Amino acid sequence: MATQTPVAPPALSASAATAAGGGWVLDRHMLPKMALTLISIASLSGVYLTMTTHGASAGEALLRWLYLAALGVLAGGMMWWGLFIRRPSDAGEAEEVGRFVVAQWKRFRRIGLVAVVAALASSPHLLLLAGRARAAGELHLFRCGLAMAAVGLAASAVLLSRAPRPDRVFAFGRVRLAGAVLVLALALTAALDARLTFPGQGLALALRPIHLVAFGLWMGGAVWNIFIAVPGAQETLTLSVVIAGAHALERFRWVVRVILPTLVVTGLVQGYAYVGIEPAALVGSLFGRLILFKLALVAGLVVIFITCPLWRACSPIRGMCDLADLYETREPAEPAVRLDNRGKACAGFVAVRRTLGSLQRGAVMELLSTDAFSWWELPAWLEVNGFELLEKEKGRWRLRRSYRFLIRNGAPDGAVGEPRSGVVAPLNTPLSGLPSPARGGRDPIGGRDRASP
């Protein structure tokens, strides 16, 4: 059965949301902010649980959390910067996305340098760990973790103090290296915690670093999405930026799909080492209650992760959560022409252009395609060439995924749509007036490379 995806309606403005929600002003970024809050609280409770086994006070536990959170923000930021941002193949789009990258770097510079200062300011708690490590014969592990943290913080400070050159906006080698060092620093400090809490237990030594690194990367990625990617896109908003931002966000969501079950499994196993599975121990002890509290927070994160895309609440920018949100709802229309482009490549795209060019103004064409990229590339191509996407849906054709599009010709009779241009669209408005990406790159149908006219 085909899965129909109608083109999404425009997002509500603040006033419209208030009227529709009985005084509740819809914040389309509310759920990510809630997720970041839950991540912070869950990580703080975990750090407190661990530090109490070392004989630390609540203040020392808070310093420890601030130190690990700063490393996590930096590591997750380097992950997003170095792995999720990609250079578009088209030169014109690369220029627009490059400005988006620079805008994000400027915001990450402020947040990252604050994180570096926070890590240094909270470092006095390391004296407590150094004493415990010396007594347990693990001073070498403490020194390795401290060295990696120092290198990671220094590398971060250097990367954030120098603006990327125009010809190196998409050069991510040093960013990825700094991120790897920060992840290693988190893993080593978690390994030290495991050795001090459960000496001689190999399972704890394996699970604690995975658990802490997962939390750190998620926290850093969430900070980037809320405080860096969204404001950076608003400053440089074009169709190419929205598409690049949407793909980066989806890459982060794939990482979270791995992080969530990882946190649940590693958390349950580590919790068993503290209190076992006896209900009385879980409810009657401080450790047990903290573990149950932390599991409840992770369950809340699972709910938010599932709910975000359903509410289109991953980002307040139209199209970031789903590229289909870029386009307005249209009334159903009967197609005047049906073009079956399934199983075709270059020749199929030529037929599509020819058919669209022969349509009268206002006429509708039904297009069938098996090109997986057409699901998101074709709507963008239609938008910048003056056509209107009325409807799209997924189905099956000869054991392959197929796609159906209803397209209305908004150009003058006999013309193949005129590219649209305009100013940056305001927040929560359709992006019909965005500047079109430069020509060149891959055709949305058939996979053929476009040649500049």
User: SSE order in H/E notation?
Assistant: EHHHHHHHHHHHEHEHEEEE
Share of helix, binned? 55-70%
Give the mean pLDDT: 78
Structural class: alpha+beta
| Overall morphology | elongated
Show unreliable segments. Answer: 1-26, 412-453
Rg from Cα: 26 Å
State the distance separating the first and last CA atoms: 41 Å
Strand content: 5-15%
Largest sheet: 5 strands, mixed
The counted number of beta strands is: 7
**Arrangement of strands in the largest sheet:** 1-4-5-3-2
Count of alpha/pi helices: 13
Could you explain how this protein is built, in words?
The protein starts with a strand and ends with a strand. The protein is built from 13 helices and 7 strands. 60% of the residues lie in helices and 9% in strands. Strands 1-4-5-3-2 form a 5-stranded mixed beta sheet, with helices on one face. A two-stranded antiparallel ribbon has the order 6-7. A hairpin with a 6-residue loop joins strand 6 and strand 7. Helix 6 runs antiparallel to helix 7, helix 7 (173-197) packs antiparallel against helix 8 and helix 8 (202-235) packs antiparallel against helix 9 (239-275). By secondary structure, the chain is of the alpha+beta class. The model is unreliable at 1-26 and 412-453 (pLDDT under 50).
